[in-house]
Predict the structure of RNA helicase.
Amino acid sequence: MASIHTTTPSLEAASSVATRRRITPTAPTSRSLSLPFTFKSQFNAFVVGGTPLLGCFNHQSFVPRAVATPNSVLSEQAFEGLSLHQDDDVYDSEAEAESSSMNGDELDLSKLSLPQRLVDTLLKRGITHLFPIQRAVLVPALEGRDIIARAKTGTGKTLAFGIPIIKRLTEDDTERTRRMSGRLPRVLVLAPTRELAKQVEKEIKESASYLNTVCVYGGVSYTIQRSALSRGVDVVVGTPGRIIDLIESNDLKLGEVEYLVLDEADQMLAVGFEEDVEEILENLPSKRQSMLFSATMPSWVKKLARKYLDNPLNIDLVGDQDEKLAEGIKLYAISATATSKRTILSDLITVYAKGGKTIVFTQTKRDADEVSIALTSSIASEALHGDISQHQRERTLNGFRQGKFTVLVATDVAARGLDIPNVDLIIHHELPNDAETFVHRSGRTGRAGKEGSAILMYTNSQRRTVKSLERDVGCRFEFISPPSMEEVLESSAEQIIATLNGVHPESIKFFTPTA
């Protein structure tokens, strides 16, 4: 479908539109019962003479759906003539799909009409330009649109909703933004896991320390969270279960919420939060702006959007291509028996992580413990799974972030929402259950435009499954052999040299006489 280009409204204009617009969810109509459609194209990488020929599309099935991309605007006329096939799980909204059409300068934070203290904070964090999802969301969010956004893992989703919300809170009534004790939250962010909730809280606090942001989740005492809420709060981030508890105890009042964010909505379903989420949404004011972010769109998420979002704009930076891995992730596959896996695992980490952070994914808690113990004799590692207490869990994650050990062995509980920057290598110790799990595991590396590697370990009997995974994900593995002794020694030597180069010269002088 050809893009229809138009002039993008300024951020000032977007803000003024939002100020005038009343955002009141209405009963679904024939035009708002569902989401726009997107053309589905299956991407294949064909290999000829060992060279992959990218950019070959197999249009086996077209599912018409409009896509709002960062550089196109699709009006209602763009839907005319499309043959729409509907069922209970398909959205067919003809709502106008629009998005920003920005040039390179407009992606520069210093060129945008954002509050200067927000810009200064982001620049200090090394954030100078918007990522595609942030670019696509910014203007419609400032216009007050309800939004449904799909984007690849690790592409900056938190700031996609964080920047426009922080801008609005910063520029709003000064009476409100003063530190009024007991003020009620204006922003509610729902996250499926405590790790993701804490990550969102951290992003908002680091971007706008002048806003009072409180994170609430289960597994810890209520006392501190209740005290924080009673002092007055601007933003509440939390898991649905704990939020329900605080609502029922009258410690959290949602009567002044103006902005709702559902982050990783599909995972709310996966962890059984459907009823809690719906109960929370029923407690919110009808006059609000809602933004829903989800990697996939299962039936429950679609129904949620139909019921609680008002004519949402569908921003899809994934499309219906199965391939959802972030760019920059190198994929490897290696055949190994159950016995040899333990033997070659440490060598793979030594050669491919090169001293950086590694996450090894296992299928069971027992495997996580056993693999971690086996690795500890040669590489510092810790296990992370559901049987570990909240205190130990946070201690383990903090130790991994700080580099106290370089290998985290985890079950899929760690596949989503963990705030662990700069992971260099992912190892799938066993085949994941499905393509989606593979993508989410692998997405722990190669985040925010950085490079990373993922290694899939499989047995000979699973080779056909690996090929199926390639088709389902739309990727190619480089099939490798166990590292040779020379490769292991060379990589180890490089890491030792790098470590020595990092030693302060004054410390070297201390050891020189006895060296």
